[in-house]
Amino acid sequence: VQLQASGGGLVQAEGSLRLSCTPSKPSSKFGMGWFRQAPRKEREFVAGISWRTSNTFYGDSVKGRFTISRDNAKNTVYLVSNNLRPEDTAVYFCARDKVLYRDGEAKSEYDYDYWGQGTLVTVSS
Q1: Are the CB atoms for 6 and 63 separated by under 8 Å?
Q2: Bridging pattern class, strands 56-58 and 119-124
Q3: Cα–Cα distance measured from residue 86 to residue 8, given in angstroms and rounded to the nearest whole number
Q4: Per-residue model confidence as pLDDT tens digits over 87-109
Q5: How many angstroms separate the CA atoms of 97 and 13, rounded?
Q6: What's the whole-number average pLDDT of the chain?
């Protein structure tokens, strides 16, 4: 399974972006997640959505600013990032949960087995 992420770019602080992620195979039965990695930092969990689209969960640093959603008809997951800050600058990766029909929150990178190539988000001050 390949994941194609897009939507990154350069944005000013307090601006917004929408990232998209499309797996190459139908993935409605799997949770999906977004992670990010800034230079010289470890990969950080950003947001996740279970196969039940009503179950979403977020990392503490983005709660209230980022929203994850999915459109199973389009086999695409979105991450809308509002009120962006310079510290949000990172490469953002989407990933697919390794467990079918997981009901819990998958916040560890070890919960995911397929990863996209990453899309760079740069927030200027």
Answers
A1: no
A2: unpaired
A3: 14
A4: 999 999 999 999 999 989 999 99
A5: 31
A6: 97
Distance of CA 45 to CAs 35, 104, 125, Å? 4, 15, 23
Sign (positive/negative) of CA torsion 45, 39, 121, 66? positive
What would the pLDDT profile of 34-59 be if each residue is shown by its tens digit?
999 999 999 999 999 999 877 999 99
**What are the b/e assignments for 93-105, b being 16+ CB within 10 Å?**
bbbbbeeeebeeb
Q: Please give the Cα distance from 99 to 89 (Å, whole number).
A: 29
Token pair of 97, please? 């949960």
Ranges of H-type helices in 2-123 = none
